Amino acid sequence: MSTKVPSESRPIAPTPQWLQALLLLVPAGVWLALLLVIPTLLIFELSLVPNIKPGDLVNPSGLGNYWRIFQSDVLNVIGRSLLFATGTTLLCLLMGFPVAYWIALLSPKRWRNLLLLAFVLPLWTSSLLRSYAWISILRPTGVLNTLLTSLGLPTLDLLNRSPAVFIGMTYSLLPYMVLILYASLEKLDRRFLEAAADLGATPPQAFWKVTVPQTLPGIAAGSLLVFITGLGDFINPELLGGTSSMTAARLIYNQFLGATQNWGFGSALSMVLILAVSLAIALLIKYGDKNASSL
Amino acid sequence: MAQTATQNQQTTGINVEFDVELRKVFKVFNGEIVVRGIDLSIRRGEFFSILGPSGCGKTTTLRLIAGFETPTAGDVLIRGQSMLNVPPYRRPANTVFQNYALFSHLTVWENVAFGLRIKKRGKAEVQERVKEALKLVKMEGFAKRFPAQLSGGQQQRVALARALVNRPTVVLLDEPLGALDLKLRKEMQVELSNLHQELGVTFVLVTHDQEEALSLSDRIAVMVDGKVEQMGSPSQIYDRPQTPFVADFIGDTNLFRGRIEGAHPTMLWVITDKGLKMKVQPANDTNGLPLTSGAVVVSVRPEKVNVGFSPPDGSLNCFEGRLKHVMYLGTHVHYVVQLLSGDQITVRQPNALNVPTGDTPVYLHWGADDCLALPE
């Protein structure tokens, strides 16, 4: 009786490593396979099917949809998408950095969460709603122009042109930039700023030689996130940009659900966008790693 | 013209002796007085230590000199010039920070070159001076490494080089050796001392490690509660403490409360609260005169106490007790002895062959020169 070992104290056989890995990875793996990998492959297959609609280029090689992209009208659209995304990234960086800097380093500590919340709040509203709000602000008889007129200033015609797209996209994406930059600046070791001052650096010198290099990974991550999201943004250009602001995302929409039904060409354009974004992310990962190893 | 020249000469003549002066400096943080009217004059080329327990205001004092804090009242001078309106980046002082604060995005070479490049020195000069500074701290071979690839001691050396390369009037060291293990700390103490002698620059060291302060400094200021409790050479601080706090904080000591019973010009008779009668040396009172009456605290250093198994002949301060604990420390042995009066006394003697053990009766004795009566 006394030699009997209670069952609780018997060692449990360890789960083999391959099983652990399987159990941990299967849910997300299935999700990714069903909703990302397979659809992407389907889009790729679709992009090779030549469209037989009258008026479209018919190319039996299967790559005709891709050649179509290199025609100047499509290249212009892609160029405009890149311009919107790049411009929005720069605007977000220019406006977001001072804000994130102030919240992370200068504002009273007990206000910080509240201030961040105030910045994230717009994210909780529907993006459609935000665009409609901008329409009512920017339209010729909107809030902005009413204000300008009452001040005796000339009115601004911004809606249905690219300025409205920049405004709407920057407004939508600024919170992401602020959040990422805040996370980076908040980790900045303030003794570095003291050390820089100690070594003779004026505050602007310390900013460029210490603060910016120290937060470069955050700047890169924030910029890339805004750039990628901006490149794929459909609602802001569609609702605020008017007919002159055709972007790649709108063009793709039109191929599937809009007036010009051409699934093959839409798929090819999608593939190019996916490839470009993947490349950008790959660059970020590589760049981020390089930065991490030097820390 | 002539008048201005003589005036200048006079001012420089007066100030030439001191590199750093603090005049009645106060610092208040959120209603809490951290530094209470400190007066310090640190001589040119001196190795000066500010020693005190944590929270005594010593780091704040150093930051006031560096310029990271501005005094609430009083003045900070470097080489006779008021620093009140001078930002840290224009002060001729460089700091070796606690935990070093080496820029993690820069290599060792770039860290050391930072100050020179900010001051737009020529490329050749930067190259030469950085090389020289790295050689000084024996880190020439590590120029291309990043701080994260260095050990604590190596980071410490780089931090020193980064400060010294600028040839500052005064080098401020904020607990620079605090993060190192004991052996490395001892090594770096020797190197700090060598560097100071070699360069002749004024060093101001902040530390809570009394041994470090004693072994390195020309002079020490002991700080408590935002005030300087005592200032003097290491031997003055250790052998002639002026207050019970200093006696207790610097090294170990046994303290007895008592009253002066009789006074001779150089000796006092003291009766302790527990009835021990001792002949002791008097410390000076606040007016610089030897104590002659009143309540005192007698300080006896553990290493000054002799242990015997029989009463010695003719020793003045001799008390019987029982050996309670023996702590073997390698080079030394610590004894805790309970006197018949009830006092517990710590004794520190060099390691000897016959270390007594157990609950043995012993006699403790020490000379009148070996103990000091301090004003209560």
CATH homologous superfamily identity of the largest domain in chain B: P-loop containing nucleotide triphosphate hydrolases
Tell me the number of structural domains of chain B.
2
Which class of the largest domain in chain B in CATH terms? Alpha Beta
Q: Tell me roughly what share of residues is in helical segments of chain A.
A: over 70%
Span between termini of chain A: 61 Å
Description:
The complex is a heterodimer of chains A (295) and B (376). With 295 residues, chain A is mostly helical. Chain A has one domain (72-293): MetI-like (MetI-like fold, Orthogonal Bundle), CATH 1.10.3720.10. Helices cover 71% and strands 0% of the residues of chain A. Chain A has helices at residues 17-47, 64-69, 72-106, 112-120, 127-138, 143-150, 162-186, 190-198, 203-214, 216-232, 235-240, 248-256, 263-293. In chain A, helix 3 (72-106) runs parallel beside helix 7 (162-186), helix 10 (216-232) runs antiparallel to helix 13 and helix 12 (248-256) packs antiparallel against helix 13 (263-293). The radius of gyration of chain A is 26 Å and the shape is globular. Mean pLDDT of chain A is 85; it is low at 291-295. Chain B is of the alpha+beta class and 376 residues long. Chain B folds into two domains: 19-239, 3-Layer(aba) Sandwich (Rossmann fold), CATH 3.40.50; 252-375, OB fold (Dihydrolipoamide Acetyltransferase, E2P). Chain B has nine helices and 20 strands. Chain B has helices at 2-15, 58-66, 108-118, 123-136, 152-164, 182-199, 210-216, 234-239, 244-249, and strands at residues 18-29, 32-43, 47-51, 73-78, 81-82, 93-96, 170-174, 202-207, 219-224, 227-232, 254-263, 268-272, 277-282, 295-300, 306-308, 317-328, 332-339, 344-350, 361-366, 371-375. In chain B, the strands form four sheets. In chain B, strands 6-7-8-3-9-10 form a six-stranded mixed beta sheet, with helices on both faces. In chain B, a hairpin with a 2-residue loop joins strand 4 and strand 5. In chain B, helix 4 (123-136) packs across helix 5 (152-164). Mean pLDDT of chain B is 89; it is low at 1-15. The interface between A and B is medium-sized, with 20 and 27 residues.
